[in-house]
Design a protein that fits this description.
Layout: H1 2-30, H2 50-59, E1 62-70, E2 76-84, H3 89-99, E3 117-123, E4 126-131, H4 134-137, H5 143-157, E5 165-170, E6 173-174, E7 188-189
Parallel strand pairs: 4-5
Antiparallel strand pairs: 1-2, 3-4, 5-6, 5-7
């Protein structure tokens, strides 16, 4: 009988100890979890400053190219420009030619307003350049102006060693002439006689 009472007291004591431990652990769980808020760095979301853009532009490797624009005496004049050094350097150069001359050098654009480059391909020394319909539709005409338009393209592209001749297309199609004076139905070679150093 005495042993039974001892056993009973031991079991009750163990149960009380377990209940006490459980209650202590529960109090920890009932506490609110602490949350750490890390402030967001606003500088990461800010727009780049002009100084940042200049630094990025300086970091890009450039390649000097020559573009040919017209003077008021009916000749082509070379204008050097630096473009990003990329695989499609001829494409990049033609896009610069489409933009027209830079600065106040007195040079005139050779491509009509609205002209855009649709495509350009170089294979076996032949460069096929495809221009938008505006190249033909918006051309002002005249034999001298037409000659300058055609050879500004030809002379600009033949500066590259991979290009010997240039074929001009409009809107994906071969054309016979731009404005009725210069035959562009066949590939054209460079013509240095139309270039002058006088602006």
């Amino acid at each position: 009988m005495y042993k039974k009472v001892q056993r009973y007291l031991l079991i009750v004591t163990l149960l009380l100890i377990l209940a006490s431990i459980s209650a202590c652990g529960g109090s920890d769980n009932d506490e609110e979890a602490s949350v750490t808020i890390t402030p967001v760095d606003n500088q990461a979301n800010e727009e780049p400053t002009p100084e940042d853009v200049v630094m990025l532009d300086d970091a890009i490797e450039k390649y000097p190219v020559v573009l040919y624009f017209a003077n008021d005496q009916g000749f082509l004049v070379a204008q050097q420009r630096e473009v990003p050094k990329v695989d499609g350097i001829a494409r990049m150069t033609m896009q610069e030619l489409v933009k027209g001359p830079e600065g106040s050098a007195g040079l005139l654009p050779t491509l009509p307003p609205g002209t855009s480059l649709k495509d350009i391909n170089i294979r076996d020394g032949l460069c096929t350049v495809d221009l938008s319909q505006e190249f033909k539709e918006n051309h002002s005409g005249g034999s001298s102006t037409e000659l300058l338009s055609v050879y500004s393209i030809v002379n600009t592209l033949t500066q590259f060693p991979t290009v010997e001749k240039v074929q001009i297309w409009v809107n994906g199609q071969q054309i016979d002439t731009l404005a009725g004076h210069v035959d562009v139905s066949t590939p054209l070679s460079r013509d240095d006689a139309i270039i002058t150093s006088t602006q």
